[in-house]
Specification:
Strand content: over 45%
Number of helices: 3
Helix content: under 10%
CATH class: Mainly Beta
Number of strands: 22
CATH superfamily: Jelly Rolls
Order of helices and strands: HHHEEEEEEEEEEEEEEEEEEEEEE
Largest sheet: 7 strands, mixed
CATH topology: Jelly Rolls
């Protein structure tokens, strides 16, 4: 099947954007490659440092520079190369390989598709997302929830907008794992009871007994909702890790850099970062290993 025909078929089956990128960049004979192996071939130290910043290494990804894929039923903004969006300077940040900002039309969604050896995190921003997988899980996640899926030896799943009258908006995040071929697992939590205003609070870690969900990687995710003028300092939990900050709403300052809604900033070679809200803001902070 020619590439153009394959893409058309994928769109019709509701698989574009959530299936592994190699399915969208290859002819049909190549689609048996695993998610992990294909994405590992694209790895390189390409988070280019901000030369103006003298105290730590950093890279800024403004919202308007992201890849933009509008399939009608799905409108996705890619912070890193994904599917038909390819930028050799935007392949990954450390183990963070995918950060997609997705909007799915009413009643539409991603058809059943495979993953393996990838830690997949979904954070709904608006609406209700229905999940079904080959482990027998059937669930709905909504704003205030965090979902994780360790693909391990391999799973299939589907995701659909549960509502017929409004869009669903969510972040889809993929991290390379620190262990391959683990037993697949699924988990989700509500973060409404642990939310703290004007301070970063943890929603994900590598530890089963810690706050939030856990994954097979030395990564910690924190969310923060801040009033204008409030600041908070985040201290790196593991030496050598970096932090990717993604602005969900509002405007913040980090080390004299101004960031607005959906801007991203990666920081490494530092022990801590200070985030100050220039306007009311909501921020996702992802601490992740810089080496794979």
């Amino acid at each position: 099947m020619e590439r153009k025909e394959f893409l058309k078929s994928a769109i019709l089956t509701g698989a574009v954007g959530a299936i592994a990128p190699q399915l969208l960049n290859a002819k049909n004979s190549e689609t048996e490659k695993s998610t992990y192996d294909t994405l590992m071939q694209q790895v390189g130290f390409n988070h280019l440092p901000n030369k103006e910043n003298k105290t730590m290494n950093s890279v800024i990804h403004k919202a308007g520079t992201r890849g933009d894929a509008n399939h009608g039923w799905l409108h996705s903004k890619h912070s890193f190369s994904f599917a038909n969006y390819y930028n050799p300077e935007r392949m990954h940040f450390g183990v963070l390989r995918v950060l997609n900002d997705d909007i799915v039309a009413p009643g539409m969604g991603f058809g059943t598709h495979p993953h393996d050896n990838m830690e997949i995190i979904s954070i709904p921003l608006e609406g209700d997302l229905e999940h079904k997988d080959s482990m027998g899980n059937v669930a709905v996640i909504k704003q205030g929830d965090v979902q994780v899926m360790s693909a391990g030896t391999g799973i299939t799943h589907s995701e659909y907008n549960k509502n017929k009258n409004k869009e669903v908006k969510f972040l889809q995040i993929w991290l390379f794992p620190n262990k391959k071929n683990v037993t697949p697992r699924y988990d989700q939590i509500s973060i409404r009871d642990i939310e703290i205003e004007n301070k970063f609070y943890q929603v994900l870690s590598p530890n089963k007994d810690d706050h939030g969900v856990w994954i097979n990687q030395d990564a910690w995710f924190h969310l923060g909702k801040f009033k204008k003028g409030i600041s908070d300092e985040y201290k790196i939990k593991k030496a050598g890790n970096g932090v990717y900050v993604f602005i969900l709403e509002g405007e913040v300052e980090i080390n004299n850099e101004k960031l607005s809604k959906r801007d991203g900033m990666g920081v490494w070679d530092t022990d801590s970062i200070k985030v100050k809200a220039s306007e009311n803001a909501r921020v996702l902070l992802m601490e992740i290993p810089m080496s794979i």
